[in-house]
Protein backbone atom coordinates (compact mmCIF):
# COMPACT_ATOMS: atom_id res chain seq x y z
CA UNK A 1 0.00 0.00 0.00
CA UNK A 2 1.07 3.59 -0.55
CA UNK A 3 1.62 5.75 2.57
CA UNK A 4 5.14 7.26 2.76
CA UNK A 5 4.13 10.57 1.16
CA UNK A 6 1.08 10.87 3.39
CA UNK A 7 0.45 13.78 5.71
CA UNK A 8 1.80 13.49 9.26
CA UNK A 9 0.03 15.30 12.07
CA UNK A 10 2.12 13.91 14.93
CA UNK A 11 -0.93 12.92 16.98
CA UNK A 12 1.26 10.27 18.59
CA UNK A 13 2.20 9.93 22.23
CA UNK A 14 5.35 7.85 22.38
CA UNK A 15 5.83 5.94 25.63
CA UNK A 16 8.15 3.33 24.15
CA UNK A 17 11.21 2.75 26.28
CA UNK A 18 9.50 4.07 29.39
CA UNK A 19 9.32 1.78 32.41
CA UNK A 20 6.06 -0.20 32.57
CA UNK A 21 3.69 1.16 35.20
CA UNK A 22 3.65 -0.25 38.71
CA UNK A 23 1.07 -2.95 39.11
CA UNK A 24 1.06 -3.65 35.39
CA UNK A 25 3.28 -6.71 35.36
CA UNK A 26 1.86 -8.72 38.25
CA UNK A 27 -1.58 -8.97 36.72
CA UNK A 28 -0.33 -10.51 33.49
CA UNK A 29 -2.00 -13.82 34.28
CA UNK A 30 -5.38 -12.23 34.71
CA UNK A 31 -5.07 -10.31 31.51
CA UNK A 32 -3.76 -13.19 29.43
CA UNK A 33 -6.96 -15.10 30.11
CA UNK A 34 -8.84 -12.25 28.47
CA UNK A 35 -6.90 -12.01 25.21
CA UNK A 36 -9.80 -13.26 23.15
CA UNK A 37 -11.97 -10.58 24.62
CA UNK A 38 -9.54 -7.77 24.03
CA UNK A 39 -8.21 -8.37 20.56
CA UNK A 40 -9.26 -5.24 18.67
CA UNK A 41 -11.69 -4.52 21.49
CA UNK A 42 -12.84 -1.49 23.27
CA UNK A 43 -11.72 -1.83 26.83
CA UNK A 44 -14.66 -3.10 28.86
CA UNK A 45 -14.87 -1.25 32.13
CA UNK A 46 -16.19 -4.23 34.08
CA UNK A 47 -13.21 -6.37 33.11
CA UNK A 48 -10.74 -3.60 33.70
CA UNK A 49 -11.98 -3.06 37.22
CA UNK A 50 -10.61 -6.53 37.97
CA UNK A 51 -7.29 -5.53 36.49
CA UNK A 52 -7.33 -2.27 38.40
CA UNK A 53 -7.74 -3.96 41.74
CA UNK A 54 -4.21 -5.33 41.39
CA UNK A 55 -2.76 -1.83 41.53
CA UNK A 56 -3.87 1.61 40.49
CA UNK A 57 -2.05 2.59 37.30
CA UNK A 58 -0.13 5.82 37.24
CA UNK A 59 -0.72 7.73 34.02
CA UNK A 60 2.60 8.03 32.23
CA UNK A 61 3.04 10.84 29.74
CA UNK A 62 5.06 10.13 26.63
CA UNK A 63 6.68 12.38 24.07
CA UNK A 64 4.25 13.90 21.59
CA UNK A 65 4.89 14.48 17.91
CA UNK A 66 6.12 12.73 14.78
CA UNK A 67 8.20 9.63 15.67
CA UNK A 68 11.70 9.17 14.21
CA UNK A 69 11.31 5.53 13.26
CA UNK A 70 9.44 4.06 10.31
CA UNK A 71 7.13 1.95 12.49
CA UNK A 72 5.99 5.01 14.41
CA UNK A 73 5.68 7.10 11.27
CA UNK A 74 3.43 4.50 9.67
CA UNK A 75 1.01 4.77 12.60
CA UNK A 76 1.17 8.56 12.41
CA UNK A 77 0.38 8.64 8.69
CA UNK A 78 -2.52 6.19 9.01
CA UNK A 79 -4.03 8.05 11.99
CA UNK A 80 -3.68 11.35 10.12
CA UNK A 81 -5.30 9.81 7.06
CA UNK A 82 -8.25 8.56 9.14
CA UNK A 83 -8.58 12.07 10.60
CA UNK A 84 -8.68 13.57 7.10
CA UNK A 85 -11.30 11.06 5.96
CA UNK A 86 -13.53 11.44 9.03
CA UNK A 87 -13.20 15.21 8.90
CA UNK A 88 -14.65 15.00 5.39
CA UNK A 89 -17.39 12.59 6.43
CA UNK A 90 -18.44 14.72 9.40
CA UNK A 91 -18.30 17.91 7.29
CA UNK A 92 -20.72 16.32 4.78
CA UNK A 93 -23.18 16.26 7.68
CA UNK A 94 -22.36 19.75 8.87
CA UNK A 95 -20.40 18.42 11.85
CA UNK A 96 -16.84 18.73 13.06
CA UNK A 97 -14.63 15.69 13.63
CA UNK A 98 -12.45 15.74 16.71
CA UNK A 99 -9.49 13.29 16.34
CA UNK A 100 -8.58 11.02 19.26
CA UNK A 101 -6.49 12.65 22.00
CA UNK A 102 -3.54 10.54 20.78
CA UNK A 103 -2.41 7.17 19.56
CA UNK A 104 -0.21 5.96 22.40
CA UNK A 105 2.73 3.73 21.43
CA UNK A 106 3.99 1.72 24.38
CA UNK A 107 5.93 -1.40 25.38
CA UNK A 108 4.35 -4.18 27.43
CA UNK A 109 2.22 -2.19 29.88
CA UNK A 110 1.08 1.35 30.53
CA UNK A 111 -1.47 3.34 32.51
CA UNK A 112 -4.64 4.38 30.67
CA UNK A 113 -7.88 6.13 31.56
CA UNK A 114 -9.45 2.64 31.46
CA UNK A 115 -6.98 0.84 33.74
CA UNK A 116 -3.64 -0.77 33.03
CA UNK A 117 -3.07 -1.39 29.34
CA UNK A 118 -1.20 -4.60 28.53
CA UNK A 119 0.35 -5.58 25.23
CA UNK A 120 -1.35 -8.97 25.62
CA UNK A 121 -4.73 -7.26 25.20
CA UNK A 122 -3.93 -6.31 21.63
CA UNK A 123 -4.64 -2.79 20.40
CA UNK A 124 -7.60 -1.07 22.04
CA UNK A 125 -9.42 2.23 22.36
CA UNK A 126 -10.15 3.77 25.75
CA UNK A 127 -13.32 5.89 25.62
CA UNK A 128 -12.53 7.58 28.95
CA UNK A 129 -9.33 9.30 27.74
CA UNK A 130 -10.13 9.08 24.00
CA UNK A 131 -6.79 7.45 23.17
CA UNK A 132 -5.87 4.43 21.07
CA UNK A 133 -3.25 2.16 22.68
CA UNK A 134 -0.87 0.16 20.52
CA UNK A 135 2.20 -1.92 21.29
CA UNK A 136 3.93 -2.35 17.93
CA UNK A 137 4.99 -5.88 18.86
CA UNK A 138 1.37 -6.72 17.98
CA UNK A 139 2.33 -6.56 14.30
CA UNK A 140 4.47 -9.67 14.84
CA UNK A 141 1.51 -11.40 16.44
CA UNK A 142 -0.74 -10.29 13.60
CA UNK A 143 1.48 -11.90 10.97
CA UNK A 144 2.57 -14.86 13.11
CA UNK A 145 -0.32 -16.00 15.28
CA UNK A 146 -3.10 -14.56 13.11
CA UNK A 147 -1.39 -15.05 9.75
CA UNK A 148 -2.30 -11.54 8.51
CA UNK A 149 0.74 -10.12 6.72
CA UNK A 150 1.44 -6.69 5.33
CA UNK A 151 0.97 -2.98 5.88
CA UNK A 152 -2.67 -2.95 4.82
CA UNK A 153 -3.51 -5.51 7.51
CA UNK A 154 -1.89 -3.19 10.06
CA UNK A 155 -3.67 -0.16 8.66
CA UNK A 156 -6.97 -2.02 9.03
CA UNK A 157 -6.24 -2.56 12.73
CA UNK A 158 -5.53 1.15 13.27
CA UNK A 159 -8.57 2.23 11.24
CA UNK A 160 -10.75 -0.19 13.24
CA UNK A 161 -9.65 1.37 16.54
CA UNK A 162 -10.28 4.85 15.12
CA UNK A 163 -13.72 3.52 14.21
CA UNK A 164 -14.35 3.02 17.92
CA UNK A 165 -13.38 6.63 18.51
CA UNK A 166 -15.94 7.70 15.89
CA UNK A 167 -18.54 5.59 17.71
CA UNK A 168 -17.63 7.35 20.94
CA UNK A 169 -18.17 10.74 19.28
CA UNK A 170 -21.50 9.77 17.72
CA UNK A 171 -22.93 8.15 20.84
CA UNK A 172 -23.15 4.67 19.32
CA UNK A 173 -20.89 3.32 22.02
CA UNK A 174 -23.47 4.20 24.68
CA UNK A 175 -26.18 2.70 22.48
CA UNK A 176 -24.23 -0.57 22.34
CA UNK A 177 -23.74 -0.59 26.09
CA UNK A 178 -27.49 -0.49 26.57
CA UNK A 179 -27.88 -3.61 24.40
CA UNK A 180 -25.53 -5.73 26.51
CA UNK A 181 -22.06 -7.16 26.10
CA UNK A 182 -22.48 -10.86 25.44
CA UNK A 183 -23.81 -13.04 22.67
CA UNK A 184 -23.89 -13.24 18.88
CA UNK A 185 -26.22 -10.24 18.43
CA UNK A 186 -25.08 -8.21 21.44
CA UNK A 187 -24.27 -4.53 21.43
CA UNK A 188 -20.59 -5.46 21.65
CA UNK A 189 -20.73 -7.47 18.41
CA UNK A 190 -22.72 -4.75 16.61
CA UNK A 191 -20.14 -2.21 17.75
CA UNK A 192 -17.20 -4.31 16.52
CA UNK A 193 -18.75 -5.01 13.12
CA UNK A 194 -19.52 -1.34 12.68
CA UNK A 195 -15.89 -0.47 13.49
CA UNK A 196 -14.85 -2.97 10.79
CA UNK A 197 -17.21 -1.25 8.36
CA UNK A 198 -15.77 2.14 9.33
CA UNK A 199 -12.28 0.79 8.63
CA UNK A 200 -13.60 -0.05 5.17
CA UNK A 201 -14.97 3.49 4.76
CA UNK A 202 -11.50 4.83 5.51
CA UNK A 203 -9.94 2.40 3.00
CA UNK A 204 -12.42 3.53 0.33
CA UNK A 205 -11.80 7.25 0.80
CA UNK A 206 -8.12 7.51 1.77
CA UNK A 207 -6.86 7.70 -1.83
CA UNK A 208 -9.04 10.61 -2.90
CA UNK A 209 -8.80 12.53 0.38
CA UNK A 210 -4.98 12.32 0.40
CA UNK A 211 -4.56 13.18 -3.27
CA UNK A 212 -3.19 9.69 -3.90
CA UNK A 213 -0.56 9.80 -1.14
CA UNK A 214 -2.28 7.15 0.99
CA UNK A 215 -3.92 4.46 -1.09
CA UNK A 216 -5.00 0.85 -0.93
CA UNK A 217 -5.12 -1.22 -4.10
CA UNK A 218 -7.25 -4.35 -4.57
CA UNK A 219 -4.51 -6.54 -3.05
CA UNK A 220 -4.40 -4.27 -0.01
CA UNK A 221 -8.16 -4.52 0.45
CA UNK A 222 -7.74 -8.31 0.28
CA UNK A 223 -5.09 -8.02 3.00
CA UNK A 224 -7.49 -6.02 5.15
CA UNK A 225 -10.19 -8.63 4.59
CA UNK A 226 -7.73 -11.35 5.56
CA UNK A 227 -6.94 -9.55 8.80
CA UNK A 228 -10.65 -9.11 9.55
CA UNK A 229 -11.18 -12.83 8.98
CA UNK A 230 -8.22 -13.80 11.15
CA UNK A 231 -9.66 -12.10 14.23
CA UNK A 232 -13.23 -13.38 13.99
CA UNK A 233 -14.59 -14.79 17.25
CA UNK A 234 -15.29 -18.22 15.75
CA UNK A 235 -11.77 -18.48 14.32
CA UNK A 236 -10.15 -17.36 17.58
CA UNK A 237 -12.30 -19.73 19.65
CA UNK A 238 -11.53 -22.66 17.37
CA UNK A 239 -7.81 -21.90 17.78
CA UNK A 240 -7.84 -21.45 21.54
CA UNK A 241 -10.44 -23.97 22.72
CA UNK A 242 -11.15 -26.15 19.70
CA UNK A 243 -14.84 -25.25 19.50
CA UNK A 244 -17.15 -22.33 18.74
CA UNK A 245 -19.36 -20.78 21.44
CA UNK A 246 -21.63 -18.11 19.88
CA UNK A 247 -22.91 -17.01 23.33
CA UNK A 248 -19.40 -15.81 24.11
CA UNK A 249 -19.04 -13.80 20.89
CA UNK A 250 -17.88 -10.24 21.40
CA UNK A 251 -16.62 -9.25 17.93
CA UNK A 252 -18.48 -11.28 15.29
CA UNK A 253 -17.49 -14.21 13.10
CA UNK A 254 -14.79 -14.12 10.42
CA UNK A 255 -17.46 -14.06 7.72
CA UNK A 256 -19.29 -11.16 9.38
CA UNK A 257 -16.14 -9.14 9.96
CA UNK A 258 -15.05 -9.51 6.34
CA UNK A 259 -18.52 -8.72 5.05
CA UNK A 260 -18.89 -5.50 7.05
CA UNK A 261 -15.37 -4.35 6.17
CA UNK A 262 -16.30 -4.94 2.53
CA UNK A 263 -19.56 -2.95 2.88
CA UNK A 264 -17.55 0.05 4.05
CA UNK A 265 -14.83 -0.41 1.44
CA UNK A 266 -17.31 -0.73 -1.43
CA UNK A 267 -19.63 2.12 -0.48
CA UNK A 268 -17.33 4.57 1.34
CA UNK A 269 -20.53 5.50 3.14
CA UNK A 270 -20.80 5.27 6.94
CA UNK A 271 -24.61 5.26 6.63
CA UNK A 272 -24.22 1.80 5.10
CA UNK A 273 -22.57 0.69 8.35
CA UNK A 274 -25.77 0.58 10.39
CA UNK A 275 -25.13 -2.65 12.24
CA UNK A 276 -27.66 -1.56 14.87
CA UNK A 277 -30.52 -1.35 12.38
CA UNK A 278 -29.47 -4.27 10.17
CA UNK A 279 -31.95 -7.19 10.14
CA UNK A 280 -29.04 -9.57 9.60
CA UNK A 281 -25.62 -9.05 11.12
ZN1 LIG B 1 -12.86 -3.32 18.16
Mind explaining what this structure looks like?
With 281 residues, the chain is an alpha/beta fold. Helices cover 48% and strands 9% of the residues. The protein has helices spanning 28-32, 35-38, 45-52, 70-92, 138-144, 151-170, 172-179, 187-209, 218-230, 233-241, 254-267, and strands at 12-14, 63-64, 102-105, 109-112, 115-118, 124-126, 131-134. α6 (151-170) crosses α8. The structure holds zinc ion. Zinc ion is lined by residues 40-42, 160, 164, 192, 195.
The biggest beta sheet is recorded as: 5 strands, mixed
DSSP strand tally: 7
Strand content: 5-15%
Distance between the termini: 29 Å
Low-pLDDT runs: 22-38, 44-57
| Order of strands, widest sheet | 2-1-3-7-6
Overall 3D shape: globular
List the ions, cofactors and other small molecules found in this model: zinc ion
Radius of gyration: 17 Å
Helix count equals 11
Average the pLDDT over all residues and give the rounded result: 85
> What structural class is derived from the secondary structure elements?
alpha/beta
Short description:
This protein has helices at residues 28-32, 35-38, 45-52, 70-92, 138-144, 151-170, 172-179, 187-209, 218-230, 233-241, 254-267, and strands spanning 12-14, 63-64, 102-105, 109-112, 115-118, 124-126, 131-134.
Amino acid sequence: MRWRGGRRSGNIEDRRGMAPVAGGIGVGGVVLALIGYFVFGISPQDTLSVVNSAGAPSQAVGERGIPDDEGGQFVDVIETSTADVWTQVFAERGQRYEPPAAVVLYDQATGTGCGTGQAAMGPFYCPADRKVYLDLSFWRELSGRFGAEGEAARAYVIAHEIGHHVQNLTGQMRRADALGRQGADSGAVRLELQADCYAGVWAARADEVSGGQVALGPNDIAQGLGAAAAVGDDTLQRQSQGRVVPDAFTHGTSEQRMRWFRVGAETGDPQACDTFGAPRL
